């Protein structure tokens, strides 16, 4: 695996690069494990390295979507606006369990606490709805990037927030209209958004958002949407 100098990067974020992600094939079958660092190097991604991930979309009871702006300390896509929480299940038994994506949903609960400070008991895995999966690839810069099969997870609940500033520099709840305004700003390069959030917002998000109380018709655990 390539050697990359991480001395100039944020110490707390560099420590997270040692976490073990779940390696998968293009059908989302587990084929091994590797570090978060190796999974996010473009040099490895270009050779086909692919890992499992998730994206949480959390709405409050007013049907507003919680967005976060990634901190400037983040190694991939710093300062970008994105959906509520995006991360990876880790290669250990609780998060490897695949029945109804329970491992991924447990990982989402863990990261909602780590990034946003949402108490674990406020969002349980059972309250997180797994809709479908998307497969995408994107470069953050010349060294780092993403290549993931991303589980799309929805939650609707009022929660307590206490964000970690090393992860998140700002957050806000938005209406559909406000999100469309943010997407317009991003198209004019006035703000930055993550590529996965852009892809999901341009394809499925508003249709799902219109049906928050009737999401069952959109559940598709067979298809992986190639973006």
From TrEMBL:
Pathway: Isoprenoid biosynthesis; dimethylallyl diphosphate biosynthesis; dimethylallyl diphosphate from isopentenyl diphosphate: step 1/1. It catalyses: isopentenyl diphosphate = dimethylallyl diphosphate. Its EC number is 5.3.3.2. Keywords: Cholesterol biosynthesis, Cholesterol metabolism, Isomerase, Isoprene biosynthesis, Lipid biosynthesis, Lipid metabolism, Magnesium, Metal-binding, Steroid biosynthesis, Steroid metabolism, Sterol biosynthesis, Sterol metabolism. GO terms for molecular function: isopentenyl-diphosphate delta-isomerase activity; metal ion binding. It comes from the Eukaryota. InterPro entries: IsopentenylPP_isomerase_typ1 (IPR011876), NUDIX_hydrolase-like_dom_sf (IPR015797), NUDIX_hydrolase_dom (IPR000086). SUPFAM superfamilies: Nudix. Belongs to the IPP isomerase type 1 family. This is isopentenyl-diphosphate Delta-isomerase.
